[in-house]
Amino acid sequence: MLAHIYIESYKVITPMTNIDITPQSIKIQEDGLGLKWHDGHQTVLPFRFLRGNCGCAVCVDEMTHTRKVGVEDVDPDVRAEDFIEVGNYAVEILWSDLHYEGIYPFKLLRQLCTCPECAVNRQPKS
Ligand SMILES: [Zn+2]
Ligand SMILES: [Zn+2]
């Protein structure tokens, strides 16, 4: 009975949570942070967009989870200078505006993917 319930609930999990979320490669491109995923998917995250989605305590209030620094607050010319892999689940990006606090879990990077395919997957399933 329990196994049955498990299988039923597994079906409602969105494709997003099923995928292997470790990127095959990460590189800094002219137009943003480029990621290539193990399922063949490719993501380019524009720097300003990514910087504005930083989830660190400076950018998001820890108590209220309110965003304090968003895309609009970020220098339009901000660039990722470098990144460091953190464990095997995230990257820490070194931004040109000297903001080094942000750690971006791979899962978040994939969720932020701006391509039309991922936008469809993000729609709430009813
Ligand atoms: Zn931040
Ligand atoms: Zn995508």
Radius of gyration: 16 Å
Q: Report the helical percentage.
A: 25-40%
Structural class: alpha+beta
CATH topology annotation: NE0471 N-terminal domain-like
Indicate the mean pLDDT: 85
Order of helices and strands: HHEEEHEEEHH
How many extended strands? 6
* The CATH architecture: 2-Layer Sandwich
As a percent range, the share of strand residues is: 15-25%
Largest sheet: 3 strands, antiparallel
Identify every distinct bound molecule in the structure, by name, code or SMILES: zinc ion
CATH class: Alpha Beta
Could you give the distance between the termini?
Answer: 25 Å
Strand order of the largest sheet: 1-2-3
Q: How many structurally independent domains?
A: 1
User: What is the tally of helical segments?
Assistant: 5
Overall 3D geometry? Answer: globular
Low-confidence stretches: 1-16
